[in-house]
């Protein structure tokens, strides 16, 4: 009889915390999911590839400020409590997301558009820096010690769940509206919808009670007077902060953002897959892999957190380049022979521009379907001379729709990458919570988490895309960044991390 109310209570805590955190991740990720379309709205029409890189830089800026949000809101969480702090972060995140959906395009207000979006991304980053630590701490402080990995792993599903929700709403909106209207103004709808989701979450969170551990500290008068000083000026605690960063969250961060965000960017921008195909592949991969957050979180209660997380990093180090090479090989249509073509539609010729002399620039678009079932658009850009025949300058391929066997092969490869995400991410909330004493837990765990994820992990799409754009690089060159960071974190973690829960007597 006495156990049932406790079980009901913990699942209410998880539900209320997870819903708000899922919505915050949704708010944060719709920007990255729409980077190509948003780039066309925020920068001049002739910006080309630099528009995508600049947009990814704005996306990355939100990650860079997350550690500052961790310091600001972590301090508040340790001073005034977990509940009200992550209520505040939820309001800031939801308001910023809604306002991004209202920002006029470059054609209306010029460079003020990307500047305003950058400011709102910074507010988002600050808010998220305070949200995760609060939610993870709140759940962990309600959970029994022997099931902390299991219960906190439900919070871990919200990051991938937020990405899944953002992708689902984006695809649904685009399919209802049509590609042209979605690219013109419909991309704003997922941003504007977030205000409704945030309203529901605020209502639920207002009914939550403060964490029992923090309430006990407050009743006894043991709340930290200066969480920042206690977290980072005491040698033993600061050592744990550094170890958590370099031995765990740094590697976990690059595995997370490679397997989900860089994978999506690579399929769309490097492999040139159709918008829907790239999203559907990720959606299926996420759907199949998400339950494993709870599997590995629960398993870590039995065997420890360390080796589950480090194994996920090691597998990423080994398999990333072979996986992305398969993506490239299976989408390369530059060597298609006439025998492989089932149908070639009538070419569509468009005049692009003309100079003041004798030549006119044209693009010829031809939709081609192969016997295998794959289809794509072949685009040839040519200069037609008045006194001669067209001279082909550039041939590119885009909007590739995969044959069913290849599509499901890609789903399996994405699933494997997200499975690695569940290995490194499922146990990490419990791992971080257990490293630090209750009175400075919110502050201490938030900083290494958000430096590892926000700086090292969040920069993966931007840095990897930038590296791949350098002269002499290959499409796979960008992978050396996450592989290198994960390798370094694996070595540090293997040597210095303990698989046992630390004794807080040394720290307090």
UniProtKB/TrEMBL annotation:
CDD domains registered for this protein in UniProt: MFS_ShiA_like
PROSITE patterns to which the protein is assigned, alphabetical: MFS (PS50850), SUGAR_TRANSPORT_2 (PS00217)
SUPFAM superfamilies per the UniProt record, alphabetical: MFS general substrate transporter (SSF103473)
InterPro entries reported for this sequence: MFS_dom, MFS_sugar_transport-like, MFS_trans_sf, Sugar_transporter_CS
UniProt entry tagged with the keyword Glycoprotein: no
UniProt subcellular location: Cell membrane
GO molecular function list: transmembrane transporter activity
The keyword GTP-binding is annotated on this UniProt entry: no
GO cellular component term, pick one: plasma membrane
Keywords assigned by UniProt, alphabetized: Cell membrane, Membrane, Transmembrane, Transmembrane helix, Transport
Transmembrane segment boundaries: 51-73, 85-103, 109-129, 150-173, 185-204, 240-259, 279-300, 307-327, 406-433, 454-473, 479-497
Gene3D superfamilies xref list: MFS general substrate transporter like domains
Chief location bin: membrane
Pfam families according to UniProt: Sugar_tr
Domain Major facilitator superfamily (MFS) profile as annotated: residue spans: 13-501
Membrane topology value: Multi-pass membrane protein
Superkingdom of origin organism: Bacteria
Name of the protein this chain belongs to: MHS family MFS transporter
Organism: Pedobacter frigoris
């Amino acid at each position: 009889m006495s156990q049932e109310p406790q079980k009901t209570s913990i699942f209410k805590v998880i539900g209320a915390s997870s819903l708000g955190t899922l919505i915050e991740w949704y708010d944060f990720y719709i920007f990255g999911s729409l980077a190509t379309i948003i780039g066309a709205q925020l920068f001049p029409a002739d910006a080309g590839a630099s528009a995508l890189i600049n947009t990814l830089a704005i996306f990355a800026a939100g990650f860079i400020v997350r550690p500052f949000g961790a310091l600001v809101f972590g301090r508040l969480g340790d001073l005034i409590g977990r509940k009200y702090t992550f209520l505040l972060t939820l309001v800031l995140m939801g308001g910023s997301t809604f306002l991004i959906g209202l920002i006029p395009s470059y054609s209306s207000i010029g460079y003020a558009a990307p500047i305003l979006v950058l400011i709102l991304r910074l507010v988002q980053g600050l808010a998220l820096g305070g949200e995760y630590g609060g939610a993870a701490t709140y759940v962990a402080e309600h959970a029994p010690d022997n099931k902390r990995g299991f219960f906190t792993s439900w919070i871990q599903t919200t990051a991938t769940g937020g990405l899944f929700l953002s992708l689902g709403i984006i695809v649904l909106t685009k399919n209802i509206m049509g590609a042209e209207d979605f690219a013109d103004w419909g991309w704003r709808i997922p941003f504007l919808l977030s205000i409704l989701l945030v309203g529901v979450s605020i209502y639920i969170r207002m009914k939550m009670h403060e964490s029992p551990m923090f309430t006990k500290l407050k009743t006894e008068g043991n709340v930290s007077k200066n969480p920042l000083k206690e977290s980072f000026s005491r040698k033993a605690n600061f050592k744990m902060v550094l170890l958590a960063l370099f031995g765990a969250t740094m590697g976990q961060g690059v595995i997370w953002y490679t397997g989900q965000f860089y994978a999506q960017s690579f399929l769309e921008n490097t492999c040139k897959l159709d918008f829907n195909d790239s999203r559907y592949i990720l959606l299926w991969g996420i759907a199949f892999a998400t339950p494993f957050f709870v599997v590995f979180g629960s398993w870590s209660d039995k065997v420890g957190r360390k080796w589950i997380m480090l194994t996920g990093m090691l597998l990423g180090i080994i398999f990333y380049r072979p996986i992305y090479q398969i993506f490239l090989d299976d989408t390369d249509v530059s060597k298609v022979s006439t025998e492989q073509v089932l149908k070639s539609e009538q070419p569509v010729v468009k005049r692009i521009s003309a100079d003041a002399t004798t030549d006119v620039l044209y693009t010829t678009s031809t939709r081609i379907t192969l016997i295998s079932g794959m289809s794509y658009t072949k685009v040839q850009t040519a200069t037609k001379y008045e006194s001669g025949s067209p001279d082909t300058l550039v041939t590119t391929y885009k909007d590739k729709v995969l044959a069913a066997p290849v599509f499901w092969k890609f789903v399996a490869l994405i699933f494997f990458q997200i499975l690695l995400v569940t290995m490194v991410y499922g146990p990490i909330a419990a791992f971080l919570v257990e490293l630090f004493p209750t009175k400075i837990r919110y502050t201490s765990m938030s900083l290494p988490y958000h430096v590892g994820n926000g700086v090292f992990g969040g920069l993966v799409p931007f840095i990897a895309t930038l590296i791949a754009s350098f002269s002499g690089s290959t499409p796979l060159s960008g992978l050396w960044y996450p592989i290198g960071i994960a390798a370094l974190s694996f070595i540090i973690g293997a040597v210095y991390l303990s698989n046992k829960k630390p004794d807080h007597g040394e720290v307090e």
